[in-house]
Structures are given as C-alpha cells and as structure tokens.
Amino acid sequence: MAKAVAKRKSRAKPRKQTASREEFLHYYREMLLIRRFEEKAGQLYGMGLIGGFCHLYIGQEAVVVGAQSAARPEDALLTSYRDHGHMLACGMDPRGVMAELTGRAGGYSRGKGGSMHMFSREKNFYGGHGIVAAQVPIGTGLAFGFKYKGLDNVCLTYFGDGAVNQGQVYESFNMAALWKLPVIYVIENNKYGMGTAVERASASTELCQRGKAYGIPGEAVDGMDVLEMRAGTEKAIAHCRAGKGPFILEAQTYRYRGHSMSDPAKYRSKEEVQKMRSERDPIDHLRELILAEGHADEDALKKIDREVKDIVADAAEFAQESPEPDPSELWTDVLVDA
Amino acid sequence: MAIKTYREAINDAIRLEMRRDERVIVMGEDNAGGMGAPGEDDAWGGVLGVTKGLMPEFGRERVLDTPISESAFIGSAVGAAATGLRPVAELMFVDFMGVCFDQIFNQAGKFRYMFGGNAVTPLVVRTMYGAGFRAASQHSQCLYPVFTHIPGLKVVIPSSPYEAKGLLTQAIRDDDPVIFFENKAQYDDVGDVPDEAYTIPFGEANITREGGDVTIVAIGRMVTLANQVADDLAKAGKGATVIDPRTTSPLDLDSILESVGETGRLVVVDEASPRCGMAADISAQVCEQAFSDLKAPIKTVTPPHTPVPFAPELEDAYIPSVAKIRAAVDVVLAA
Lengths: 338, 335
Description:
The complex is a heterodimer of chains A (338) and B (335). Chain A has helices at 21-46, 61-69, 84-89, 94-101, 135-148, 167-178, 198-201, 226-241, 270-280, 282-292, 298-321; strands spanning 76-79, 125-128, 155-160, 183-189, 192-193, 196-197, 218-222, 247-252. Chain A has 338 residues and is α/β, with parallel strands linked by helices. Chain A has a single domain, classed as 3-Layer(aba) Sandwich (Rossmann fold). In chain B, 37% of the residues lie in helices and 19% in strands. Chain B is α/β, with parallel strands linked by helices. In chain B, helix 2 links the parallel strand 2 and strand 3 (63-65). The N and C termini of chain B lie far apart (44 Å). Chain B has helices spanning 6-20, 54-58, 70-82, 97-108, 111-114, 144-148, 161-173, 222-235, 253-263, 278-290, 312-318, 322-334; strands at 2-5, 24-28, 63-65, 86-93, 124-129, 154-156, 178-183, 190-193, 206-209, 214-218, 240-244, 247-249, 266-269, 299-301. In chain B, helix 1 (6-20) packs parallel to helix 7 (161-173) and helix 9 (253-263) packs across helix 10.
C-alpha cells in the first residue's frame, strides 16, 4: 500500500493556524468553486462537449487556494496541465476557462489551447504547460524578471511529484539559488506521477529536500489543510521577498480522479481513494472547522454552495453557447505579423 | 493470420522479440505503472495500453517503469544499447523529444560514425505522433521530419497493423538507432496480422494501389486516406499509384521515381508541417532527379504552417483530408 498522506490532526488539540471569519468563508468558497467546476468539467467531458485531455484537480483544492491566499495579486504563478484550479484561484473568469475547455471563441485562448493551455497577463497566470516540468525553468525566469526590474514580486511555480525527476528542475534550482531568485517551487505531491506511485518513481520521496544540494530550504506542508498551506506559503514568500532566494514547498496532497479523463485509475486500490476521500477531504475538513468554531452556520454555507453552483452552471452554459472559433483563427497568432 | 489492432500488432512484435532475445528490454513511463501492490500492477500498460501484459510475462527486470525523466531514460537506453542490449524505449509523445533530443541526435545518432564504426546502438525509440486527438499544440505534432534530418537515425512510420508488426520487429533486430512512429489515432485500426514474427525491410516502399495516371506518395496514417482517394478515382476511371515509403530514412526514392516515370504526375501527402517536411523533401528530390518526367507541377497536401489547434473545428481543418487530397489530385490530373 502506498503511504497515506500525513495523519490528520486531532481536532481536540488547538490548531496552530487560524483565520478570520471572512477568510474562512473565502477559502471555503474558492475550494468549493474549484471542486464544482471540476465536477462539471468531468460531466461535460462525459457528454462529449470537451475533447482531448482534461486533468482534474479534485482533492488538491487546498493547495492552490491556501498558497495563493498568501500571495499578492502582482505575484506570478504558473503550473502544469492540471491547471483549472490555479486559474480559478488567481481570479480568472470561470466562463473563460470553461469555454476554453469546450474549445470555443469565448475561451481564454480563443479555443486554440484547450484544457492545458491558458494564460492571463491580467491575473499574472503564466500558463498551463503540457510538457512535464517545462514550467519550472520558465517560473525561474519569471522570478528573474521581477528581480531584474527591482520589483519584490515572487513567482509561485507549481509542479507535481512526477515532474521532480526531470533534469530541468535541478538546472533551475541551481540557477535560482545562484542568483537568489524570488521563486517558490510548490511541489504538489499527489502520490502518483501519471499511473506510477511516487515510491516507485522517486529514490527519495522526501521531495521538499530536493534543493538541499543547492542550499535551497524546503518544507513539507499538509496540502489537505488550507490554513497549513497558507502558513507554509507565507513563510516561503517572506523568505523570497527578503531577497534570500528560492524556497521549496512540498504540498502533500492526493488526486481523487485519474491522471486524465482517459485514466480509470486502476493502478491503485479503491480503498486507498475512499480512505482519502472520507478521512482527509480538504473541503469537508474546512467545513467542519467553520461549523465547529462558529464562523458560520449550515444555512450560510448552503448559501455559498448555491452561489458556487450558479457560477459553475453559468460558466457551463457560456461554454456551450459561446461560438466555435472562426475557421480563419487557424492562421492567426502564429507570429506577431501573421 | 488473425485480425489485430495496430495496438495489438505493436504489442505482438515486442512480445515475440522479447521471447526470442533476452537482450530486448522495454523502458518508459507507466509501461506497467501502478502502486506496486498485487492486483494494481499492469492495470495501466502504457497510456494507450500498448505495453499491457508485457510486465506480467517478462517481469519488472525487463519491463521497466521509469520516472518522468526522458533525458535520463532515453540516454540510459542509448548506453544500454552500446553494451549490446536492445532497448525498446517509449517516448510517450514525440512532442516530448524536446526534453531528451540531445541523447537521440547528438549521441545515439552519431555513435557509429563518430566512433569509426566501433560503436553499435541497437536502440528503438517508440513514440506517438499525429493530430486529431484534440490534444492541442504540445501533444499532436508529427516531428519525424526532424529525425529524418539527422544522418545516423532510421525513421519508421508504419501505416497499418501489418506494417506496424513487421517494421517494429525489423527495428528491434536492427543494429542502428530506430525512431518508430505510431499514430495515436490508429491504435484501434484493424487488419490482418500473422501470429508469427516477420520482418519488413527498411528502405523498401510499399505500393498499396496501382494505377497509371497519377502517383500519390503518403506517409503514415495518410496512406489510408490516399488509398481511399485512389479507390474513388478508380470508380471515376482514373488510376492512381499509392506509395507508402514506410521509412523516411532510409527513403526508397527509386520506387517513387519509377512510378513518376510512368505517371508523370505526383501528389505528396504528409501530416507534418509543410516547411522542411517530407512533402517538401520528396518533391525536391523528384524535381531534381526526374524533372523531365513530370507532366504537371507537383502538388503537396499538408497542414498549414501553424501549431496544431485545440478546437475540433480548427483541428479538423488543419489535418489533410480525403477531400483535400482529391482536390490536389484533380488539379494535377487537369494540368
């Protein structure tokens, strides 16, 4: 059996992290939005309205919501092809994201990129990238750009436990450490690189230590707990903004669905998935906290549930009604003057 | 003879060669996959199920799941090949060549020549190519012209299940580095495939249709489309010869020149980008060597020179189609 994610803390003990009522409800709403958005995307995929690849983020919501809540709007982020959650968490419009999934003119890439490839300069989201680990040097370069311009922005570079074994990750670590670049490498360890368990692909599974040889500090964080994620990221960002160079955060999380929609995830036991869902779900966990600590009652949460459902329904409708791209789009944007 | 899919034909070739020769090993990402627990092993069998069942038969010593580390495992396959093993490495999508290309073109492709014939590199890199899967710009390319450009590599593009098995068997037995291109849209194609092992030699084109009015050279999946055009033409009383080169390196130019000598008209169909692609290369060679045989300007049918788009309508417009090939053939015939 694969190792379970770090054990859930007993709720009898006081928590290390806390947040205001507004923050609690904001995180709940954001995480729920990702969850419902992804469920809808899976549904549309099943109906044949989304084609090609579609990598769902369900189970990992606390990672990006927690991390981005520690960042400023002017900080950059970029990630792999499992990118829907990151786009929603940085404030991109669910309509534009969903319409890109359906390949419509109203999508962020006007239908030319699809699920894996979107970009928003406005939100400083520098892309969903399709080649494993290719975003790691790019995120390093974004951080270089900030430093060169004398800005104190940081770049959150997200990648998975599968990507950590790519050579370009270590070439990036070296340069980022050498040049003291303000980049936070967020390793989302969801336990499987495609269909192979992390223990079967990595000689050392202590992924937060992968920067040790370059003097890059690293910490493992409970990626199923949004408050822990936020706290871990706050520390990492403070390190970067202070000019001390890169930081590695390993978010220990779990992917409920297959690697992509075509993956029935037969390579792991149903019990493992069920155990994570029932004992470690990040949204259930937050919901329980909110109720237990009296930040909101059931009615208030139900109201958020309804609001989120409406946003997602609206996005799905937009994604189906937005027109297909004009055939002439095939030739546009190949080069500046094309 | 049995009816098999393109996927099964490839699996067959690897399996039979692994039974025949202990030096044959398989390595790649998720080739078996799993969490390492009984029951969850080999449930995956590669992203498209091509390597399924190999691990249970040959064990993890010969069927290796690698980390997502293309430079490392393709490079290791090159090294293992230099010791005399016959690795069949799977580069899942050819688009990922960017991560490991040095090991292929500067290392594997140069060893024999640069080391004065002292080194052998009996390596096969199997890889997926092709559009039509709604897989967007980074998972849909046909990069075989890039490999064809490199002396020292053999480049194989099977067009049917029968071709896939025979050419892959040849590739595994071959002493040079071979890049073997599998079209992801063809895995479920079916055809007659013998159960036993057989080889198809490299550099010998396959004539899939014979006719005297026009020559159509088509690569990979485009052969199926070209055959359809030839069949349609036959109904209209015109004869087309369809040539499947099977390998772009070595390229059987002789068969193409011979046919052009008879028909005087040539259409080249390729799913790769038009600039410096196979259509351009073959056209140039025919112009250079058989210009006087041509009764009409050569036509090429390729995608536009753009990345592969995601939206279904755009992607469908991107890929060469039967209608586009037919239109080109009609122009050549009318000239």
